[in-house]
């Protein structure tokens, strides 16, 4: 059996946003995120993730169709819960859409979506994406309250924001790291028990990925900034391949 057909293989979605960040720095068309998507496909990545931010600071509208045309890999579109983004998602019909919180002035996605506090706002977005056959995911903190809200909203997938875990790792705060890992581990088990597929991502690196990858219920990791950063030194093929190997090693 080839690796990609293994029943419980942890999927790697590669977020190519920051290839577009570098492109946009000079306003031209190099480096092209489409070329990155093709490389990800050639080295066994399982999906492409792209966050079309409202301010278009990296991925732009035209990139989406070009990515979809260039590879057969499933596209996971990260999007804010706005009418504009919903219309774009419905028009492009990606394999998956992950609803993320978005603040115009933030440097990156700072926390999880408040699915519990925004139930009434989010419900029509989840319903319309689900109705269109797009696998809807909510990018939430690993907490019982948010997971329960995702369940009530009818989201088939959640992605746990691993930013706090990644910060604790960087800070060398072993107590916080252990409690973040426990929180994600416990919530992954609860999600799976409730029939929700748990994913994880944000701030994952070669150094911190394995404890997260080892959580048995987690079906997919979405990793971007670090892989693109490493690619500057070793190339995207090599950075994706090494991440893949580390994930496989963690799963045993
Ligand atoms: C939601 C999320 O975590 C990703 O979108 C990722 O962080 C890349 O985009 P930004 O760097 O713009 O947040
Ligand atoms: N949803 C998380 C993601 O797509 C990638 O986050 P990062 O690795 O760029 O921090």
Structure described in brief:
This protein is α/β, with parallel strands linked by helices.
Which features characterize this protein?
252 residues, alpha/beta, TIM Barrel, 8-stranded parallel beta barrel, 8 strands, 49% helix, 15% strand, disordered N terminus, binds 1-deoxy-D-xylulose-5-phosphate, binds the ligand NCC(=O)COP(=O)(O)O, pyridoxine 5'-phosphate synthase activity, transferase, cytoplasm
Q: What do the pLDDT scores average to?
A: 96
H/E topology pattern: EHHEHEHEHEHEHHEHEHH
CATH homologous superfamily grouping? Aldolase class I
Number of helices: 11
Q: Beta-strand level of the residues, as a percent range?
A: 15-25%
- Spatial separation of the terminal alpha carbons: 16 Å
Q: CATH topology, which one?
A: TIM Barrel
Biggest β-sheet: strands ordered side by side in the sheet: 1-2-3-4-5-6-7-8
Number of strands: 8
| Cα shape | globular
- Helix- and strand-based class? alpha/beta
Helix content: 40-55%
Low-confidence stretches: 1-5
Structure ligands? 1-deoxy-D-xylulose-5-phosphate, ligand LD2JLWAY
Main beta-sheet strand count, sense and barrel state? 8 strands, parallel, barrel
Which CATH-level-2 architecture? Alpha-Beta Barrel
CATH level 1 name: Alpha Beta
The radius of gyration over CA amounts to 17 Å
Task: Tell me the domain tally.
Answer: 1
Please characterize this protein's 3D structure.
This protein has an 8-stranded parallel beta barrel with strand order 1-2-3-4-5-6-7-8, surrounded by 7 helices. With 252 residues, the chain is an alpha/beta fold. The relative contact order is 0.14. The chain is 49% helix and 15% strand. It is built from 11 helices and 8 strands. Strand 3, helix 4 and strand 4 form a beta-alpha-beta unit. It has a single domain, classed as TIM Barrel, CATH 3.20.20.70. It is globular, with a radius of gyration of 17 Å. Keywords: Cytoplasm, Pyridoxine biosynthesis, Transferase. It is found in: Cytoplasm. This is Pyridoxine 5'-phosphate synthase. Pfam families: PdxJ. Belongs to the PNP synthase family.
